[in-house]
Amino acid sequence: MKIERLSTANLREGVFCVTGRPGSDEWYEQLDAWLDGKVLRGNFARGDDGEVLGFVLYLDLEKAPVEIEGGGYYLMQCLYVKPHYQGQGVGKALIETALADARTCGAAGFVCEGFRPDPRGPREFLPETFFQHRGMPDAESRGPATLYYTLFEPSAPPPRYVPLNFNPRPGKRIRIDILDCKRCYYNVRSRNIVQSVLSEIEKQGVSVHWHDQTTRQAVVDKGMSSGVFVDGKLTFFQGPVSEEDILNALEVAIAARGEANKP
Question: Which residue range forms the structural domain that includes residue 68?
């Protein structure tokens, strides 16, 4: 097995969607821009036969469009090993190369988001048990995620989530707000599903507001990188969204408005 540094030249070979779906051009173009802009770093593992076995992506928190803060930390965005090669030390090798690279870059620590089991179905990546088994201490939790971290500088404070600062107010029409960070295939796909659903239903009474969350400042301003709000209520956060989810959320919002308008 050989570990290779991710670059704009090998991005599409070394990184793929963990769900097995084709990665969108829009997603790859955003990752490419972050790589070129020195925001994103990564490595991938290649077997002796040349096959890519897995990859790890990580970002400098001071530049990254994520809702986590910590002076000098790096964040692991994604770590994935193909199922056939799991349990063979590939994931361990990838995370160790990421930790070593972050330390070389002068990072004060390394933080990872671990996710609890999803009642709607299994999550394909970053289960919290992976970091718990590595003995990493935990910090704050938000939604289905918890921050796990490793310190390179003992005096560095634990990482934390940026305070939430987004509260869209419903108007005369039902309002949908989409926070779009393009950091993961899930985020791009969720936005596209929302747009697809809205194009098929009666648009009268629905206003859509799209928020570009691809910069650090945009995320810090709102305290969130991705999410879907329906009539001011955070409806979906971190993870895939289905057409049924969106339609159900709209039905709830319409019913709530009907109750509020009763004499």
Answer: 2-161
Q: Which residue, 144, 30, 27, 124, is CA-closest to 80?
A: 124
The SS3 of residue 125 is coil
Whether residues 134 and 178 share a domain: the answer is no
| For range 191-218, the mean pLDDT | 80
Q: Structural domain tally of the chain? A: 2
Angle between helices 185-200 and 243-260 (to 10 degrees): 60
DSSP labels for 25-38? HHHHHHHHHHHHTT
pLDDT at 74 over 80: yes
- Domain end point (choices 161, 193, 222): 161
Task: Examine the domain organization and report whether 109 and 219 are in the same domain.
Answer: no
Task: Give CA 21 to chain center in angstroms.
Answer: 16
**169 in a structural domain:** no
Using a 10 angstrom Cβ sphere, with 0-12 exposed, 13-18 middle and 19 or more buried, the burial of residue 141 is middle
**φ, ψ at 169 (rounded to 5°):** -100, 130
Averaging pLDDT over each range in 15-24, 137-146, 169-178, 226-235, which range is the top one?
137-146
CB atoms closer than 10 angstroms to residue 172 = 7
Q: Rounded to two decimals, what is the model's pTM?
A: 0.84
Side-chain-side CA neighbours of residue 83 (13 Å): 4
Q: Based on the domain organization, do 178 and 157 belong to the same domain?
A: no
